[in-house]
Amino acid sequence: MSRPIESNVIASPLTTKFMSSFVLLTILAGLGVGVARVLISLYAVHLEATELQLGLISAAQNFGILIMALPIGVLVQRFGSLNIFCIGSVLGAVVYSLTPLKVGAWYLFAVTALVSFVLPMRFVSINTVFLSNLKRLGPARAGWFRGSHMMGYFLIAPALSVLLIEHFGYGGSFYVVSLLFLGTLLLAPWCFQRSTPQVTNRPHFQWRDIVAPLALIKTHASLRIVCILEFLSSVANNYFGFFIVVIAIQSFALSEPMAVMLLTVQGIVFVGSLFSMGGLAELMGYQKFYLIGLSLMATALLILALTKITLLMWPASVMFGLGLGMLHIANFMSFARVGEQTAMAKISPILALVGPSGGLLGGLIGAVFGAQVGLQNLFLPIGLVFIGLIILISKDQEFIQFLKPDVSEQSVKGQEL
């Protein structure tokens, strides 16, 4: 049985058509999910949802992802990225179109949870193709590719969401999200056509195929640390992304557009770092790069937790976006390195599982402790955890050795130059 091309690291040259199409697809895919995220957050506030409901709605965006990430990874290997991505896009469009049919916080929670079951079909497919091409892209262009997705998700989506609400209301805005999901179908064949599987005599699904990525986490020590970093950065990012708007409106009396601007500022810095800092990671070394990124995030989280001054929320958002971007670059290069050492087809579902797991915890933290502790105060323990990560990256010698470039890798780069 032959495997789809995305199961391994691709060695053939990247074509201009593939690169341009993939960038446009990732921008549009990120835009659809990003607009939906901001809409759900603002709509929940509009519905006067309680802290419990807000936290559950935030966490619901990851419920199905946790369940489906590993099975979808197997499906992508068997049926190819194109087929799985297209099915996920159609199903996502249908579910989002159901959102305006009934008004209520618990109904919004149910629809948000439902759509989370189909989202892995899209981003596992994209991540598999991305990771398979990452070695040839190199750190600088890898950040550029990843930044295109985050440009739609973090940068364009917040401002577009406010614009859509002003012109179409919440109901019409969710229909626009459905159209954005369907729009990706036009670009998908150009991006995934090189990944069509030539598979015959497919065996029945086996449980060990689904859980194989988890066994890899158990046996690969450096992968475990990268997963911890990705998990905790997702906790912080999801908590910030969902609750910063609520905190800004309720605790600092900012208007809705100004509250969303905090997300926009963070998104601009985050995406800018992805586009510009990949080469810096290679120059200074990934351990230093990790330490600087973690320090920026820890400082930002502590400021957000302790400040009573509205003005300080802006530099904290800038620091948070910059640190998050640095972690994003380093984590993706580390995941790809593990994939080269083991099996790339197992790394994509791990990435699809770990990030949303952190996102789920971020939402649950707000749901469980938001009312008693205060949503703003919860930035403090998250910030302290990042201080612990700084100590871990400074002391773990095996991980430090893993982050050093291979001699063979450096010689190949020298030949390319």
UniProtKB/TrEMBL annotation:
Q: Which InterPro entries match?
A: MFS, MFS_dom, MFS_trans_sf, Sugar_transport-like
* Classification via SUPFAM superfamilies: MFS general substrate transporter (SSF103473)
> What keywords are annotated for this sequence in UniProt?
Membrane, Transmembrane, Transmembrane helix
User: Where are its TM segments located?
Assistant: 21-46, 52-75, 82-99, 105-130, 150-168, 174-192, 225-252, 258-277, 289-306, 312-335, 347-369, 375-394
Which GO molecular function annotations are given, in alphabetical order?
Answer: transmembrane transporter activity
**Residue span(s) of domain Major facilitator superfamily (MFS) profile:** 222-417
The name under which this protein is listed is Major facilitator superfamily (MFS) profile domain-containing protein
**What is the organism field in this record?**
Acinetobacter amyesii
* Classification of source organism: Bacteria, Pseudomonadati, Pseudomonadota, Gammaproteobacteria, Moraxellales
